[in-house]
């Protein structure tokens, strides 16, 4: 069965996209306006000053008449801070783990979160719920809250609590756990050797803690976990429906990692990646700073829906989850 007319106008709600440079180009603004894209992500080059962040947020919001998009950012602390300078910038997660001072982390992160919300940001793609398990994992260096599942879980709970108190929605990443990997998903597909028994005793714990605390989103990454499936997590219905939905009982939106990353290329073209990830169970499809890739993926995805390659039930479920997320965000996203 092909996509129904009332759903065809809502497909943009399933995408989070970014743009290169200091400010969004007119072609990008036209794209998000015409397709009513659901979320925008800011990178460091979009945030040279805090005033520029405000200007970019306003230009983006002016493209939407009714439902404003989520404005997302990766503000994890340390080297992964898209906004530099006080009070938005703060030190790396690992530095807090070294002291074990959760209260200090909450105090410092609260200042950053409140300020981000004041700038117009509504979604922080954090905290990192990975465990530091491999010294060769340069992708996660300093980004984890330690090498103990219990300690990471404690900081993850604190981050979710602070986010909600500050008016932000938050996202646990990188499901089902990237800490044991070596290859950076930006550069290729990594592989982890844990099985279900190990995962339940280790990787699962921080994600479970964050979900129990009320985390809003879950982000996967381009990782191969042969102990669960031969397909990378991004395209694995078995991992999304089995581990995330059934084992962790998470019913919020699940978002992909950036589908422009090299690690996602095994799923095909940008459009094929979007369809594969969505059919695997993701509700939101993230494309970073490559506007052409996002537009190509959107067109392919819309055509695939028209051809019946994406089920109506899958579309309705994803759109309902995204709508529920907007409802939870409440007044802090509608200005």
The gist of it:
This protein is α/β, with parallel strands linked by helices and 335 residues long. It has a single domain (9-328), classed as TIM Barrel, CATH 3.20.20. The protein contains twelve helices and twelve strands.
Task: Give the strand content.
Answer: 5-15%
What number of domains?
1
CA-CA gap between termini = 38 Å
Radius of gyration: 18 Å
Query: Can you tell me the CATH architecture?
Result: Alpha-Beta Barrel
The strands making up the biggest β-sheet line up spatially as: 11-9-7-6-3-2-1-12
Q: Which runs of at least 5 residues are low in confidence (pLDDT < 50)?
A: 331-335
Let me know the number of strands: 12
Return the CATH class.
Answer: Alpha Beta
**CATH topology, which one?**
TIM Barrel
Structural write-up:
The chain is an alpha/beta fold. It has a single domain (9-328), classed as TIM Barrel (Alpha-Beta Barrel). It has twelve helices and twelve strands. The chain has helices at residues 5-8, 26-35, 50-61, 93-99, 102-119, 149-165, 196-201, 204-213, 237-247, 270-280, 291-306, 312-329, and strands at residues 15-17, 39-42, 70-73, 75-77, 80-81, 123-124, 169-175, 190-191, 217-220, 223-224, 254-255, 285-287. Strands 11-9-7-6-3-2-1-12 form an eight-stranded parallel beta sheet. The chain has a two-stranded antiparallel ribbon with strand order 4-5. Strand 6 (123-124), helix 6 and strand 7 (169-175) form a beta-alpha-beta unit. Helix 5 (102-119) runs parallel beside helix 6 (149-165). Mean pLDDT is 94; it is low at 331-335.
Annotate the secondary structure layout.
Layout: H1 5-8, E1 15-17, H2 26-35, E2 39-42, H3 50-61, E3 70-73, E4 75-77, E5 80-81, H4 93-99, H5 102-119, E6 123-124, H6 149-165, E7 169-175, E8 190-191, H7 196-201, H8 204-213, E9 217-220, E10 223-224, H9 237-247, E11 254-255, H10 270-280, E12 285-287, H11 291-306, H12 312-329
Parallel strand pairs: 1-2, 1-12, 2-3, 3-6, 6-7, 7-9, 8-10, 9-11
Antiparallel strand pairs: 4-5
Helix pairs in contact: 5-6, 6-8, 10-11
């Amino acid at each position: 069965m092909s996509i129904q007319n009332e759903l065809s106008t809502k497909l943009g709600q399933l995408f989070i996209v970014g743009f290169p440079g200091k400010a969004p180009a007119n072609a990008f603004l036209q794209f998000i306006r015409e397709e009513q894209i659901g979320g925008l992500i800011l990178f460091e080059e979009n945030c040279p000053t805090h005033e520029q962040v405000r200007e970019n947020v306003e230009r983006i919001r002016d493209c939407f008449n009714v439902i404003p998009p989520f404005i997302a950012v990766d503000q994890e602390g340390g080297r992964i801070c898209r906004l530099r300078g006080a009070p938005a910038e703060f030190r790396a997660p690992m530095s807090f783990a070294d002291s074990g001072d959760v209260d200090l982390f909450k105090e410092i992160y609260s200042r950053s979160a409140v300020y981000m919300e004041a700038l117009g940001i509504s979604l922080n793609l954090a905290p990192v719920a990975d465990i530091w398990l491999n010294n060769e994992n340069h992708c996660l260096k300093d980004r984890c809250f330690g090498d103990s599942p219990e300690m990471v879980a404690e900081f993850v709970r604190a981050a979710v609590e602070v986010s909600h108190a500050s008016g932000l929605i938050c996202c646990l990443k990188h499901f089902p756990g990237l800490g044991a990997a070596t290859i950076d998903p930006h550069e290729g597909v990594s592989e982890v050797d844990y099985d279900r028994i190990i995962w339940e005793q280790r990787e699962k714990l921080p994600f479970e803690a964050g979900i129990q605390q009320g985390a809003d989103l879950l982000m996967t990454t381009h990782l191969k976990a042969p102990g669960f499936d031969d397909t990378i997590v991004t395209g694995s219905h078995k991992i999304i429906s089995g581990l995330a939905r059934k084992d962790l009982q998470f019913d919020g939106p699940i978002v992909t990692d950036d589908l422009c990353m090299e690690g996602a290329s095994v799923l095909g073209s940008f459009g094929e990646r979007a369809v594969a990830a969505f059919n695997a169970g993701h509700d939101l499809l993230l494309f970073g700073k490559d506007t052409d890739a996002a537009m190509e993926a959107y067109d392919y995805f819309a055509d695939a829906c028209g051809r019946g390659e994406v089920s109506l039930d899958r579309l309705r479920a994803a759109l309902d989850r995204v709508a529920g997320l907007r409802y939870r965000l409440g007044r802090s996203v509608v200005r």
